[in-house]
Amino acid sequence: LSFLKANFDVVGFDDIAEIEGKRGRHVQITFDDGYRDNHDLAFPVLSDLGLSATFFVCTGFIDHGGVPWWDELAWIVNHSQIGNQASFRELDLRLADSNQRLSAVRQLNALYDGLTEQEREGLLDELAQALRSKRCGQADGASLWMTWDMIRAMHRGGMTIGGHTLNHVELSRFSEPDQLIEITGSCQRIQSEVGAPVRTFSYPYGTQHSFNNDTRLALANAGIEYAYSYSGGYQGLTGWDRYDLKRTPVEAHHSPSFFRAMLSLPKLFA
């Protein structure tokens, strides 16, 4: 964040309309889902540096807790007792060290993403059995998520709170009425807690296949001004699609030098 502040014009959500078509090195900082470390770790640093960010929260996680499938999948891999290697649904999973386990988690995430809801049934049980692990208990996710008090504190501190559905669903798999329920339900829930209308949204999963024209219609009906994907890229001077603003992932395995290069030479990483 210090690097961003020193080398770029870090903008908040309220600046987006003004910078379209404007030359410069603008960066917007966003976070998805509503994890507690957003409040405990990111928020204090942002505040100390005088930076604003947008936090897209899945209201179901905030209200009901629970462990999402991608976290449980990683938990199962990291608690494996099978040894240094395993096979699962034609995948060769290497598990000897933390880097190999991270790679295995990515392989499994890609597998899960490509399945239908019916095909996903029982996969985590099957994986736990194959890796001689176990299922993650709900108690293990008790401290994963922010509380509404935390979210209100961040909003008062100048952060933008955006929608991210009720249940973290891949919207394109649903009908337009059901998409509207997921979108408006989450936005109304946020508004009821923070006391301000929700004007921005990010798509769960964020690929180009995770939203469609029905999604765009639902967003318009919900009063959303801008929505964000998560499949890489950046915004140029022209050609902005307000329901497909590009975001580049910043992942835990990215080194500081890779991060600096990605921001300094965005065309090479788009």
Detail the topology: elements first, then pairings.
Elements: H1 2-7, E1 9-11, H2 16-19, E2 26-28, E3 30-33, H3 36-49, E4 54-57, H4 59-64, H5 69-78, E5 85-88, E6 91-94, H6 98-113, H7 117-120, H8 123-130, H9 148-156, E7 160-163, H10 176-194, E8 200-202, H11 213-221, E9 226-228, H12 256-264, H13 266-269
Parallel strand pairs: 1-2, 3-4, 4-7, 8-9
Antiparallel strand pairs: 5-6
Helix pairs in contact: 5-6, 10-11
Uncertain segments: none
How many angstroms separate the termini? Answer: 21 Å
Helix share, percent: 40-55%
Shape: globular
Rounded radius of gyration (Å): 19 Å
Query: Helices and strands: which structural class?
Result: alpha/beta
Which percent range describes the beta-strand content? 5-15%
Number of helices: 13
| N to C succession of SSEs | HEHEEHEHHEEHHHHEHEHEHH
Overall mean pLDDT score?
A: 94
What's the β-strand tally?
9
Biggest β-sheet description: 3 strands, parallel
Spatial ordering of strands, largest sheet: 3-4-7
Report on this model:
With 270 residues, the chain is an alpha/beta fold. The protein has 13 helices and 9 strands. The chain has helices at 2-7, 16-19, 36-49, 59-64, 69-78, 98-113, 117-120, 123-130, 148-156, 176-194, 213-221, 256-264, 266-269; strands at residues 9-11, 26-28, 30-33, 54-57, 85-88, 91-94, 160-163, 200-202, 226-228. It has a 3-stranded parallel beta sheet with strand order 3-4-7. It has a two-stranded parallel ribbon with strand order 1-2. A two-stranded antiparallel ribbon has the order 5-6. Strand 1 (9-11), helix 2 and strand 2 form a beta-alpha-beta unit.
